[in-house]
């Protein structure tokens, strides 16, 4: 599984003693979204153009992605519901609403935040070509460690 986050959040997550040990919200199956490399592609495919988005394609030099293994598919919901006014680009149809890239849309079930587990990674990518700039791995009992 994968979750895209702004690079500016990474330092707060990986620092020793960080209180940020969970996340929630929209996620994708990594094999579905792995072909999206540039921030423009990631932005469009994941429909990150929601109101007050922290992403700015063409300006942001990097983006980050959390890769993790979900312990149960039962923790995922396919968000099938009528979107409310102001929720654009949310479609409520189980797929992102991109014109050019179609990804299945999943959301971690309400009340089931994901806690980081051994083997999870956070990778910082170049916005221009998706190349890895820096990567951290989560080690049980030790926390996040820089992968060289």
Task: Explain this structure.
With 148 residues, this protein is of the alpha+beta class. The chain has one domain. Helices cover 11% and strands 27% of the residues. The strands form three sheets. A five-stranded antiparallel beta sheet has the order 1-4-8-9-10. A three-stranded antiparallel beta sheet has the order 3-6-5, with no helix packed on it. A two-stranded antiparallel sheet has the order 2-7. β9 and β10 form a beta hairpin. The mean pLDDT is 89.
List the helices and strands and how they pair.
Elements: E1 2-5, H1 10-14, E2 22-23, E3 26-27, H2 30-33, H3 39-45, E4 62-67, E5 76-77, E6 106-108, E7 114-115, E8 121-126, E9 132-139, E10 143-147
Antiparallel strand pairs: 1-4, 2-7, 3-6, 4-8, 5-6, 8-9, 9-10
